[in-house]
Known about the structure:
Blueprint: E1 4-12, H1 17-35, E2 40-48, E3 51-59, E4 64-65, E5 68-69, H2 73-88, E6 91-92, E7 95-96, E8 101-108, H3 111-117, E9 131-138, H4 147-164, E10 171-184, E11 187-200, E12 206-207, E13 210-211, H5 213-230, E14 241-244, H6 254-257, E15 260-261, H7 266-269, H8 290-307, E16 313-320, E17 329-333, H9 344-354, H10 359-366, E18 385-386, E19 389-390, H11 399-406
Parallel strand pairs: 3-8, 11-14
Antiparallel strand pairs: 1-10, 2-3, 2-15, 4-5, 6-7, 9-16, 10-11, 12-13, 16-17, 18-19
Amino acid sequence: MRSSFLFTSESVSEGHPDKVSDQISDAVVDLFLSKDPEARVACETLTTTNRVVLAGEIRCKGIYENGAWAAGALEEIESTVRGVVRDIGYEQDGFHWETLSFENHLHGQSAHIAQGVDAAGNKDEGAGDQGIMFGYASDETPDLMPATLDYSHKILAQMAADRKSRKVPFLEPDAKSQVTLRYENEKPVAATALVVSTQHAPGYFFHNGEGDAAKYGELRAYVMDVFHSVLPDGFITAETEIHVNPTGRFEIGGPDGDAGLTGRKIIVDTYGGASPHGGGAFSGKDPTKVDRSAAYVTRYLAKNIVAAGLARRCTIQVSYAIGVAHPLSIYVDLHDTGAAGISEDAVEKAIPTLINLTPRGIREHLGLNKPIYRKSAAYGHFGRKAEGDFFPWEKTDLVDRLRAALL
């Protein structure tokens, strides 16, 4: 790797229209898993001006069986959707949790897909689809995540917390951030550019001589305080290029300003461009779908490898075929940072001896058949905790076994 370079990642807030869609889809997954841990869910969400539309395929005891909805199920789904929008904070004319129009087009899972995925007789449960999945970890931050993405997420998470606590009266739910860092000898050392575009209350803008300079100054000063609270001391200098709402007024936002769809922020969800990404999104899918579960287990493995001191950076790829239980391939890249005597070949051979990488094996090892997914659908699926506890794929409980196998 080059000794000096710039790298950039972005994040979007929970009020971004695509993230609203992701959170709704994952709230539906959680609802179904709370009724039936073996539920099958593939839920897509469209959000636009005062409208939410669900579509997809499901199978769930207690909600949808034998082609029919259980009593009260449709009302519970709608209540769940409206609750997500309320919790995010949308009570605007163009998108309001109480008044939005709701459509539910979920229906039963294809029997042809189910027959390839379900366990039967001597056949183990197969992968829900073909595909490639990647996991990544880096020692750039304590969370073992790329620093550019880690800071981008934390900027917006702090702003959301301040908005919801009413500490800051002029913030609205929709926002984006972007962080560019200068790296020296593969380590981040300074911020060269920081960007935040946030939806705001009426009047808090100033652009090309138009607007209220004092109100905009208040907003900008607040965002600068957030930058300084999130980034390490000394990273922001007089040379750091700062942009706060560079296009000017941003009063119309969220699904009223731009339609949202599930699964359109996959780089934000994962590693901010620092790692390859597989072909599938995560949100709206139950954990039999390897797009989700295998991406989680490869992060788990990569994080444990770095946490064990076996490498400073690690990328892992796995691949699956629909209906086939075991992965077709396992690939490891330590990016020339492996500890003495540690080779990619050795790690690839060790992984299947430490964890069962079938869909069922992944779910059982990580405990994925639980309603834990809505919290993952904003501010990244990796490198953070949920209500004081790690997501199961963020645990480092494989460190000792990896060291024993490889050292």
